[in-house]
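Section 5: illustrative case.
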């Protein structure tokens, strides 16, 4: 027998037939094996689906998503339908609870007809994590199918233009957004929700450091990203991080609280890493530097300063 590289397939080959059916049902409904477009290898580098297709053998992979406490999900990942002409290719993993790469999709089972549930249009939106999130009742408010009553609990959504647009923005961390920016996998026509503000088109607020000129962005909020070129310590225990080829030499001011949250004690480890931050582009009278005063929970680096494995 030839064994598959897919962990679930290997498990099926090793289990009796009656256990296989139970495992298939659990996999479809327990939130595991959910699709993502980017994974991380053992060296911390990002692997996209396009890159994976060119590899003869896939290396060990992990989920690079972030859980609500700010740590990396680190769940082991694998590729599915990589060369299929009928299914969409994806990386899959059994994510940690709250991972922002876990979309919480549910797949139908035979005989699970469900019932219609009208909804408004669903815009492509990300709600960026800016602090602790409230408890979740589950993805999209859905209830999982009950194996004892097939079809009676599952909602089949249909769009009703008469209803208002749904507030179903996917939760995203700035760390995961940085991965998407680096890999070039940002969704088209994406809107961002930042705190209690109205949705804003991603292209109107995300700016690479080389394009963040003061004439355009001074005294405005933005999400800036780039590569760390250097730093200096502030008198308050924070860091003023310089970015490579940044317009007007704009820097990112990272406060002491953010450094403690990320566990950064030696700033030298940040050199040459990619960084992202959200805040106000400013230049106080007493300062020589244009800088973005980063909101505490928006600062993230790639590769991560500390990564979790399981």
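Designed sequence:
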């Amino acid at each position: 027998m030839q064994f598959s590289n897919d962990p679930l397939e290997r498990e099926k080959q090793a289990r009796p037939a009656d256990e296989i059916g139970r495992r298939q049902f659990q996999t479809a409904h327990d939130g595991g094996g959910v699709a993502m477009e980017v994974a991380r290898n053992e060296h911390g580098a990002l692997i996209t689906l396009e890159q994976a297709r060119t590899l003869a053998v896939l290396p060990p992979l992990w989920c690079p998503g972030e859980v609500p406490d700010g740590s990396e999900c680190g769940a082991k990942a694998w590729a599915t339908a990589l060369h299929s002409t009928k299914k969409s290719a994806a990386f899959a993993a059994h994510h940690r609870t709250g991972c922002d790469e876990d979309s919480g999709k549910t797949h139908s089972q035979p005989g699970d007809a469900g019932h219609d549930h009208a909804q408004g249009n669903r815009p492509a939106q990300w709600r960026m994590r800016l602090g602790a999130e409230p408890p979740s009742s589950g993805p999209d408010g859905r209830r999982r199918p009950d194996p004892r009553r097939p079809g009676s609990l599952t909602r089949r959504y249909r769009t009703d233009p008469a209803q208002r647009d749904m507030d179903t923005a996917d939760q995203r961390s700035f760390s995961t957004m940085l991965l998407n920016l680096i890999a070039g996998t940002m969704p088209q026509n994406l809107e961002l929700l930042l705190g209690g503000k109205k949705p804003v088109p991603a292209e109107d607020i995300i700016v690479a450091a080389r394009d963040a000129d003061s004439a355009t962005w001074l005294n405005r909020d933005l999400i800036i990203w780039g590569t760390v070129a250097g730093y200096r310590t502030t008198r308050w225990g924070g860091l003023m991080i310089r970015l490579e080829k940044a317009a007007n030499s704009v820097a990112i001011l990272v406060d002491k609280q953010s450094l403690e949250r990320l566990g950064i004690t030696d700033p030298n480890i940040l050199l040459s890493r990619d960084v992202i931050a959200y805040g106000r582009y400013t230049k106080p009278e007493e300062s020589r530097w244009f800088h973005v005063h980063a909101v505490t929970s928006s600062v993230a680096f790639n590769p991560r300063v500390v990564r979790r494995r399981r």
